[in-house]
């Protein structure tokens, strides 16, 4: 149990202590199935069922689109999460500019965030963009899962200082953090210290040192309290004894490793009883007295009422920009198809129509054309695997529905990666091989190749949406491709197969 009032609230603990799990439960981001009991109260009342839509949540791993600029990423969040009734286009633009100013991102506002192909902003600026995506909503509660991960000490300090300034304005900021430096620890208003799911300290961060001293663990001078707490709470008995000796305290009754946590947990309840803090009990009593049955079913924080087509257009635009600005998934695909077309065209250049060699060459050509379409569209495997983290976070935050995301991805992928490359491919190869010079037959040829590419891509989309690892997806999608190749009628006469295989 615990109380997290407005301000900068930190959840600390060793790896595996339950920081992220607790954060997910508080933010309603975790499936409640399996939780034994307990409730979360917001201002003494049950939070609405869609509380996750009114709160902000910054995940540990950055989930901004690297090919888009800082302003474009923030505008994407504003266009999908702000009501069109209350915020017109100009109001959303002003909101984006206001968030950029709050986060100090003016200098890099029109710079791409960056990915493995595009050089972008620094790590600290990237983290600020992640925070800005949630700040668009002006959330009363902002959750952050280890926001300093992967940042140097100075950048981490600036990020937490920014959060401190935001919290000073009356916002409730709840963050999990692993091992902060002292300058960061000194900014915390309230501290919740965990170990293996147990609370070993809760209360004002500035009183934590005195609390630990009162139960026999004194933090020496010039030692970072955060490091000291984690060493002791993590069960590092040797460190506890060494610290004790440094403070010249008796170690006659040194605690056993398994008993340290129970000493701390017991001290939590004794401290609560001694100080007479009954805020949680009062909140629980108010919840029992009030009728919250309807509040669980209705909330004023609904999914923003927007036209489905406008949402789809926004997501399609973002996906399209990402594809066009990523050379490995757009221009390279066209170049590869042109190279394949020239190579096949040279092999079967102006093929004759005689019965012997002509039939064999053209049958082989058709088989090779189909296989080229299938294998060249394996890039579709990356579509949902690469963007899975974006989808999970954005759909949980109410950006869009699953159907919108799926349709947008398909539309934005098929045109630049399947239709355009196939058009180049067909124009080159049709005339090099010397097929019949009739307009309707050329377009029938193009239509057949495009359908083949769409079918191959659709199977790749299915596998991509089903697995998380590209290597597994690559192995799974090869099975239906090989089966179709074997039974396509080119490599074996279907009439000669066994009866039970002939179908």
Automatic annotation (TrEMBL):
Residues of the ABC transporter domain: 1-221
Membrane topology: Multi-pass membrane protein
Alphabetic keyword roster: ATP-binding, Membrane, Nucleotide-binding, Transmembrane, Transmembrane helix, Transport
GO CC field: apical plasma membrane
Localization per record: Membrane
Superkingdom as given in the UniProt entry: Eukaryota
Record field: transmembrane: 331-351, 419-437, 443-463, 475-498
Family designation: Belongs to the ABC transporter superfamily. ABCG family. Eye pigment precursor importer (TC 3.A.1.204) subfamily.
UniProt-recorded name of the protein: ABC transporter domain-containing protein
Species name: Ciona savignyi (Pacific transparent sea squirt)
